[in-house]
Write a structure and sequence with these properties.
Oligomer: single chain
Largest sheet: 7 strands, mixed
Distance between the termini: 24 Å
Number of domains: 1
Strand order of the largest sheet: 3-2-1-4-7-6-8
Shape: globular
CATH architecture: Alpha-Beta Complex
Order of helices and strands: EEEHEEHEHHEHHEEH
Number of strands: 9
Radius of gyration: 19 Å
Length: 258
């Protein structure tokens, strides 16, 4: 597809200093990198924007979810965006992923979960690892019970949601608004609600058969701040960049020889 007249945005949101803010592995032609944060920082490669005052009353996790779900509210000059969690690094030009979505005539592109297939499995892991508060545990139990009364839960497709590619169409905005209602009414764990939202609105996204958590050409995940030191995160970032540069150099040599 011809992208010469288009610009796209890759964006992320970091609240409460949850992750290390690292420069993009590479700046890709046609893409702008924008980071929303409540931290007073400057990072090479990122255009840093403060959290919008209209949503600062929300808890940190919901601020993140708001940006994650509603790019159209903040990017009037872009028709397509790529959301990434703050600990996700893009290692290869994602333009071909946009092409795949456009050619499939889809407005949302998601990735299958790397380890689990159903929301019941996701809930069990969250519960077993004691990641849920007492209230949140009750909310998700009720949420799953309601979803189960409407659909076969085994047929709801679980996705990662740390990378979301989408066009800001009216249909997508409708999906995001319904998703937001589920998050507010039940749990903020968006992986639990999105499979239901997709099914309830009878939408069929483009699913990519890989995950940022597993080996792939496009995305890598850096551990959260509470799980590693800044030195480890920077070393990981450097290794990703080193691998990227070597691969790029190899293909340039092949093209030259051809």
């Amino acid at each position: 597809m011809n992208h010469s007249q288009s610009r796209y945005v890759i964006y992320s949101c970091l609240v409460n200093d949850y992750d290390y803010i690292l420069p993009p592995v590479k700046i890709f032609d046609g893409f702008d990198f924008i980071l929303f944060t409540d931290s007073n920082v400057s990072v090479n490669g990122w255009e840093v924007r403060k959290i919008d005052e209209s949503i600062t009353h929300l808890p940190p996790n919901l601020i993140n979810r708001f940006y994650k779900l509603f790019p159209h509210k903040f990017f009037e000059s872009y028709h397509t965006s790529i959301y990434i969690d703050a600990n996700v690094r893009i290692t290869k030009n994602p333009l071909c992923l946009l092409d795949s979505m456009f050619l499939a005539r889809k407005d949302i592109c998601l990735m299958f979960h790397s380890k689990r297939k159903t929301i019941q499995e996701e809930y069990k892991v969250l519960s077993d690892r004691k990641k849920l508060t007492f209230i949140e545990n009750l909310l998700i139990k009720n949420q799953i019970k309601i979803y189960k009364n409407k659909y076969d839960l085994d047929k709801l497709i679980l996705t990662e949601n740390n990378v979301i590619i989408r066009r800001h169409s009216n249909e997508v905005i409708k999906i995001m608004e319904f998703w937001w209602k589920q998050i507010l009414f039940f749990s903020e764990r968006d992986q639990i609600s999105l499979p239901y939202v997709i099914k309830a609105l009878r939408y069929k996204p483009l699913y990519l058969n890989f995950s940022p958590f597993k080996r792939n050409n496009f995305f890598k995940v850096v551990p959260h701040k509470r799980k590693c030191s800044l030195l480890v995160a920077k070393k990981y970032h450097s290794l990703v960049w080193f691998a990227f540069s070597k691969i790029q150099s190899f293909f340039k040599k092949i093209n030259f020889r051809l």
